[in-house]
Design a protein that fits this description.
Keywords: Isomerase, Metal-binding, Zinc. By secondary structure, the protein is mainly β. It is 7% helix and 43% strand.
Length: 287
Amino acid sequence: MPAQGTTASVETRHAVHWREAETFDTKALRAHFLVQDLLTPGALNATYTHYDRLMLAGAVPLATPLAFTDAHARLVGSEHHLARRELGLINIGGPGRVTADAATFDLGFQDALYIGAGTASVTFASVDPDNPAKFYINTAPAHARHPARLITKAAAKAIPLGSQESANKRTIYQYLHPDVLPTCQLVMGLTRLDSGSVWNTMPAHTHDRRMEAYLYFELPQDAFTVHLMGRPEATRHLIVRNEQAVVSPPWSIHCGAGTTSYAFIWSMAGDNQAFTDMDMIAMQDLR
């Protein structure tokens, strides 16, 4: 349970068929696929999705640590939230500290943490409340327990991609990935665009065997990302502001361009962990 004085919100998002999604106006698209206010100072907010049962959460502890509550346990019908789930998180704020049962982990900016299934207690804290940690958290069903592990930015697998000519020069950092550490199904990483580059994930693709979620961050107040979604032949878009997340169904493309350089955290859950399992879409086939 969180300490007295902390707050939390929990919501559930049900899966949507593409036929229904193509009838949505902007308000309905945003209500179903855009997750706002995840990273709220002094709160642990969560959105539980019916896409591969992935949960998106944000914890920004101030003077008081934050923890999962009975509401998070009820979401999954267990005595505690991670009874049969694994957790991955990346810190995009100040120095933070996570306690998982008896183990404590200190995380700097852009460090990640994996916590295995069966962990009964998880607490999130900031080393300096005036410069709070910002933990972006994902949890997903797990069939086995793997050991908890801290993955620093230096330990992540860095893959440079793109070019300045196509405005998509970027570096992908793979944190929760089979080449870095074992997990059951959760895959998680971070992409940082170079200065002057704005496009991510183009040419577009889908992967019908997995869903994906994006958290965009390091966007100035007057900037945004145009996130493209939908079937390749019937695309839609979302205007996404700083520290907002997008839930991407398996039938949807997921790419976009920003009004400035930015970074984003991507995560996936589903049938496999093959990063290259993509059904590529030819540029001329997008509508």
